[in-house]
Amino acid sequence: MKNFSRFNFNSKYLLLILALLFFFLPTFVNSPYLIRVIEMIAIFSLLGLGLNFLFGYTGQISIGHSAFYALGAYTSAILETKFAVPFYIAWIVAIVLTGLIAYLVSFPILKLKGHYLAMATLAFVLIVETILGQWIPVTGGHDGITVLTVSLLGPWIAQNLYYFIIGSTIIAIWMLMNISKSSIGRSHQALRDDEDGAESLGIPVKKYKVNAFVFSAMLAAVAGIWYAHLSMVITPEVFSAGVSIQLLMMVVVGGMGSNLGAILGAIFIIVLPEFLYDFQDASMFIYGSIVLVILLFFPGGLAGIFKKVSKFLFHRKKYSGKESEVDVQNAS
Amino acid sequence: MLKVKNVSAGYDGIDVLHEVSLNVNEGEIVSLVGLNGAGKSTLLKTISGILPAKKGDIYFDDQKVTNHSTDSLVKKGMVHVPESRFLFPALSVKENLLLGTAAKDNKFRKLKSDELFNFVFDLFPVLKERSSQRAGTLSGGEQQMLAIGRGLMSNPKLLLLDEPSLGIAPILVEKIFESLLMLNKEGITIFLVEQNVSISLDISHHAYVLDLGKVIMSGTGKEVLNNPQTQEVYLGGF
Amino acid sequence: NSSSTQGSSGADDPIKVGYIGALSGGSSTMGVPGKNGIQLAVDEINADGGINGRQIELIAADDKADPATSATQAQKLINEDEVVAILGGPNSGTVKANSEVIAQYGVPELITIAMNDTLIDPNSATFPTTFRMTEDNSYDIRALAEFLIGEGHQNIGVIADNTAYGQSGTESIKKILEEKGLNVEIAVDHPVGAKDLTAQTLKLREANVDAVYVFSLGPEGALFMKTLKQIDWKVPVVGGRGLNMKAFVDLAGDAADGMILPTVINPNKPEAKEFIEKYDEKYNDDPTHVYSSLGYDSMYLLAAALKKSDGEGGDALIEALESLKDIPTVTGGMDHTASFTDDKHNAVNENYIIFNQVKNGAFEFYTDEVESGWE
Amino acid sequence: MLLEVKGLTKRFGGLVAVNQVGFSVEEGKITALIGPNGAGKTTLFNCISGFYQPNEGEVLLNNSNIIGQPAHKILQKGLARTFQLVRNFEGMTILENIMTAAHVHSGQNFLNSLLFLPSVKKSEKELKEKANDILKFLNLAHVADKYPNEISYGQKRLVEIGKVLATDAKLLLMDEPAAGLNDSETRTLVDTMREIQKTGKSILIVEHNMKFIMELVQKIVVLDFGQKIAEGTPEEIRNNEKVIKAYLGGGKVNA
Amino acid sequence: MDVYGQLLIAGISTGSIYGLIALAFLIIYNSTQIVNFAQGEMVMVGAMMTFFGLSFHSFSYLSTFFIVIGSMIVIAFIFQHVLVKPLQKQGASMFSIIIGTIALGIVLSEGMGLWLGKQQYGVPPIIPNNPISLGNITILPQNLLIIIISWSLVISIWYFFNRTMTGLSLRAVSISTEGAQVSGIKISRMLAIGFTLSAVVSGIGGLLIAPVVGASPYLGLSIAVKGFAAAILGGMGNIYAGMIGGIIIGISESFFSFYIPSYAEAITFTIMLFMLVVKPTGLFPEHS
Ligand SMILES: Nc1ncnc2c1ncn2[C@@H]1O[C@H](COP(=O)(O)OP(=O)(O)OP(=O)(O)O)[C@@H](O)[C@H]1O
Ligand SMILES: Nc1ncnc2c1ncn2[C@@H]1O[C@H](COP(=O)(O)OP(=O)(O)OP(=O)(O)O)[C@@H](O)[C@H]1O
Ligand SMILES: CC(C)C[C@H](N)C(=O)O
Ligand SMILES: [Mg+2]
Ligand SMILES: [Mg+2]
User: Fold this and answer.
1) Least CB-packed of A90, B202, C3, D247 within 10 Å?
2) pTM score, two decimals?
3) pLDDT of A123-171, one tens digit each?
4) Which residues from chain E sit within 8 angstroms of residue C225, using beta carbons?
5) Of residues A84, A27, A55, the one with CA closest to residue A209
6) What CATH number is given to the structural domain containing A286?
């Protein structure tokens, strides 16, 4: 169907090349700024991939994804800084705890559908945001928590955090790629299209929804951990409901239902503003307009454009052949 | 009353109908038969303006109405009861029926029922019983009755019916066809797509056979029904 | 580690200075005038021959009041644009996020507007190179505490918004007022964009306080004043810096009359008057001139240090900043001057705060005889 | 007995849609459920397949009560159903639709799919083969790569059948599989159903097409106003006065 | 005792604002199935145009009212013809349309900010704002006005949707466009009515709240969240439900703000979550 573009990395080789490229990038480019931008893209890709799986694949809307992003970041930061827990344990606890909370929340929440689900997830992030802002002894309130990355992780890991971030993102892409070409992936799409229909074919709809919810929350937790250690200070604003809305926008602009789209969306949302500085006051206005243009003229999102371009470049013959076929039909 | 001239139409660049021509004269019942996928529903959708015609022309009451909007055609008296019914599942039976009158005058008028209700309720008493039930919870057959009932509410001149017997119990199918005859006698022209050819051709003045988007045969209802080819393809085996 | 590579290039190249603040979103009410004030100063300095002959180029980055964006922008200004110094914006939260990044590179940051108490600590390991033009919340609060004592109030109630500004303000108010022997009977908060503050107001009234300290921004502050009027509770009110918005008096109408609140610009001061005229002629987007004047002063302060370091960044500039002494400012009392030392990174000195009083729906000069300052 | 329904009742507010109905389906046989519109046939199907909770009664599948179990569990126990109105997964091709229907017994789960273990790869291949076989069997091979909204109504009905076949269920509940088909197509469907029966499956059908029913089934249960009014062989039912009066009518339709 | 009465009055008047925004959500939803995430920005446009008329140009209230209504009609037109129609034409999913409304919201607030400035502006009250007392309880005339106008709007629009042919047709279009088509309903006209009505209600909302909370290009989000919550809590299928949802949220916020202000909003949202879990399609289910 046209609504959901399902363009994906169709080869593991492409992924491998990407992985190698990003692993060796720092040896060629010596720009901390560029590295930071790539790190932020990777973090948002993790968020986008998870959300896309939940939303583009399973059809469960969430306007509360930044709550899980926050849970990952805060849990690891609190454990490391307030309880002196070694970072590797803190990270595992953060991911597992976020998954657990997602699991508990998903039971009542996933009973809801469509707009009701949207509101419930929005309420969830607003509640989490309030707690982060008000529970001062634990979360530091709006002053947040300062994470002294170097002393917590040791200089070597702190210096090479980039590889952890990129590595985990590549693994996440690989996993989702696997899902999307397996029967599990199709079953998730099936319940997106018709819940009763899926249920009648033996697909445990509820369980699959919960799986997707928990998995995407855990990916968000990983993103949160990276963000906390990269930025070294976390405050509730970083994880606000507004960020959740941005994430949703990112997935749709990238191309709903497409893993590639989630990544292109992340690039878009991080990089575009960098180009808009020259417009100063008008930058957000232009940003919003560009999003509108993409939605209006490129239904498949950025992934759709990407697909078209690459089809044009690499399969020129086949493509133009098909095109002319259609033309003849139209003319007749 | 209805003239279809060399109409081609289809979906997304793929033509389903190829230069179809046919006529429905005022006061007649005309049937269209054909195998699954022949393009019968596509033709009805093209006539009623749901689907654009890519080529050819459609005349209604000697007026060219090719690609006119569905609502303007309903206003002119052409009503389509589609195969997929397109009811309003969340609205009550009564509201569904009322909406059949939407085209008549769309002022900010207050809702009220009129004698048309009684006509439909006489035809399908069960709808009266269920008048405040949500259409979405009706049984399959009840929904079909509601779709036909809604079509009748606008007091049409020409009724395009796509498989009215779909999902209807035998005893009621008889009743529906009797009513069609009655409606026809009252002056409503009917263009009918029906799989149950033995009964539909039986009451039709005229019939066309569609195959792969082309009209391959036409004649009076009886002629088409008794044609050996029809017998084999459409009645084969029973 | 890379501070030696920063700054000084060719003698004719402009000296690049960055500004990170909210240029869009709600906080742009402060961030944009801040930037314009800086630009006004830059234009004047350049017209005047620049920094020892070199021009200043201002590169402004929009952080949308988002901490994550702010940190990335800091990275960009330092690594790509190679600025020698960064002027920090109006939101404490984003300044906090970017100053950690900036400090890593040994680049000095001079905060223009943000007031959180914890932003400045010359002896901290994480942001030893952060400076601030304006003073912190505590400075304002001390001044108002003295005022409250002078008026004979004892039991004080606090209402604040639940942002970084309001929350840290409340903490500081509690601490300072108690220190000064006053009693903070109750503190309530409310979300930004609240449409109604009846509950909070009633709660303060139930607590029987002698005076109320409002630490919210303009619109909610006005809502509070209107609610006071509605329930007919005539209690003396003092406010925080965030109320210095035209929206506050516009919305409050006569409900805010009599209220005392601190500001940084004294209309009777010739330098301030001149600034106001120049600024309004060019931009006219900051009716209270609080944020634009702070930006303006910040840039002059930085320029003074750059002259000393001869356009050099890094340690040289930090040293230069730390040795600034008695630089005149358009903000502050009649003859206020600013200075830094190696353990005083807040620029202002005694005699900085001015009190306004709201009268007939406008801010009016009340007094610059304000006892205040550092402990 | 493969399926036994006992004293089943389902109410919607004041309306008793199914009223104390009991009947059984024998292994390997095709049984029909007929009755006027609104008699409660679809409601009964929904109760048996786990989509509705009946107010009273039991449903025994292989002698164990399945009431209260979720629909997917009931399918895993071997009972599959089609819907009266076709419902396909719009975002997938017909082939993928069928593959999805075969998913339950594929052995794939979230974890092994995440890692795409060799077993998953193998199962994917098997699913595809199985789906292709089913499409061939139903004469739908040529629409394998089309999307559901691109095929005709009759084809959609066949896809519905394809899906329940793919689930490997032993007992298939079909709601009006012949609706919208013409006589010759119905004839073909009869053959198809017999083929299905030969593979050892049992079928319970709701259908208004009497030619189809009389030709195909071994036993008929008749509902009217939610109650069972008759049960017997096609021959018995055809001549049952009550059934003629309530349902079959004058016989013109069933000529 | 007067404390509770006062809290109740406060809850009802903020609740009425939420209810009014919810009404605007519900009008669009019940005529197009679209949840308009730019609803808050539409209210913002109403508020900013009020400021524009009253403070910028010192027009009278009446002319300002017409300026607001006029600009809302323009926005409704843009919304329908530039955003929704093209998206629907390309067969975009519900989600894409929601994101489209979010993007439109950004464009509206940023565009407004570029035009009239990104400040927060104060707007004078419509009627002299001296508190009226009812026994021990007092209320501001502006709040009373909000309550009266929003309730009358809800009642009249409910009547329109449920008791007139056009209203029924609007609901029909939202349920099934195909069904509406074959019933002879002129869909584009219905959409235009739905969009305009919703935009006008939002504009009136902006006009009413501007004197209370001021006008700023960025006031949309917070107000939309509460309005959306009110609509969801009430149930999206009923025009009046949003007002009741709004009142519940308003009163809950008011009372919890008294006892535990820091968590009042969070508690209100938690209560809403619980209510949703019990009644997954709102207090007044979509179709009773
Ligand atoms: N959710 C519901 N609420 C109220 N009434 C309902 C509901 N579902 C079904 N009904 C009613 O129950 C009766 C039985 O419906 P059911 O769908 O089982 O009939 P059926 O025998 O399948 O008829 P058909 O042959 O027309 O499909 C119908 O009259 C229907 O209107
Ligand atoms: N929305 C659509 N998009 C693309 N192709 C379609 C669409 N609808 C129908 N078709 C194709 O058009 C052809 C004709 O379909 P149509 O529904 O008109 O057939 P029909 O004669 O009514 O068949 P039936 O008896 O099964 O209802 C079919 O081959 C079908 O695959
Ligand atoms: C009100 C402003 C002067 C203070 C600023 N919002 C801060 O965060 O410190
Ligand atoms: Mg058809
Ligand atoms: Mg049925």
Assistant:
1) B202
2) 0.91
3) 999 999 999 999 999 999 988 898 888 888 888 888 889 999 999 999 9
4) none
5) A55
6) 1.10.3470
